[in-house]
């Protein structure tokens, strides 16, 4: 065999050997690609998308349906949450309750009978009390006209326990105001309403405690800017209740408080003299 021919054969053999790994690599890559495609097809088949074998698509995949439903229910479902906001009172609820309350107030104004007015207020209060309770328990301090009106209605219907709780919190905040037609502040209204209620309890032979005592303590320890007559009558009605309970010592002390606030017009001279006689002074 001629040398040139031999060289051509060897060169062809070497080329064939050099090509084998490359073809093997290409084959391996194709196999892995085929495996991935096969797995993807299986997933699509499972969820209703393009099936294995190239069949036509049978509609929107379940995964897409699920995601769409979640986004319809909660647009932020797939957003990254960077922080958790502190709980706040629902501003929309506050606005809605204010609008409803305006309607209720207008309805009450059309009624002339006092008992009917009280009944309507009592019926309306459950619509607002949960909101006010949440306002207090969460220690909010924004001006709250709904809570103020609820306090007024509670006083009107004689629910003194709840009225005192709401009033105490609103007064403590210092930024709550009655509607302009009241022409006074919350402490003054509270004292006036409590006087009327305690006087009715006295005439009925009932005790006004613990609420009257709580009010007297608040008046003594707070810096309320009460009209002189209002402050003194708070002590006077408390003194009358103390006398009815035969607590003459306490009655006398309350009479002194009333005269200190309103020396000339406290109106407790006779009551004070009865206490001093009972005490043997």
Number of strands: 0
| Low-confidence parts | 21-31, 33-37, 47-60, 77-89
Radius of gyration: 42 Å
Overall domain count: 3
The run of helices and strands is HHHHHHHHHHHH
Helix content: 55-70%
Helices and strands: which structural class?
Answer: mainly alpha
Percent of residues in beta strands: under 5%
Shape, per Cα inertia axes? elongated
Supply the number of helical segments.
12
Mean pLDDT: 81
State the main characteristics.
281 residues, mainly alpha, 3 domains
Describe this structure in words.
The radius of gyration is 42 Å and the shape is elongated. It has 12 helices and no strands. Mean pLDDT is 81; it is low at 21-31, 33-37, 47-60 and 77-89. Helix 4 crosses helix 6 (145-157), helix 7 (160-173) packs antiparallel against helix 8 and helix 9 crosses helix 10. Helix content is 69%, strand content 0%. It is mostly helical and 281 residues long. The chain has 3 domains: 3-54; 91-183; 205-281, no CATH class.
Secondary-structure map:
Layout (H helix, E strand, L loop, with lengths): L2 H44 L15 H12 L17 H19 L4 H11 L4 H9 L7 H13 L2 H14 L12 H18 L7 H11 L6 H17 L3 H14 L7 H11 L2
Structure, briefly:
The chain has 281 residues and is mostly helical. The protein has helices spanning 3-46, 62-73, 91-109, 114-124, 129-137, 145-157, 160-173, 186-203, 211-221, 228-244, 248-261, 269-279. The protein is 69% helix and 0% strand.
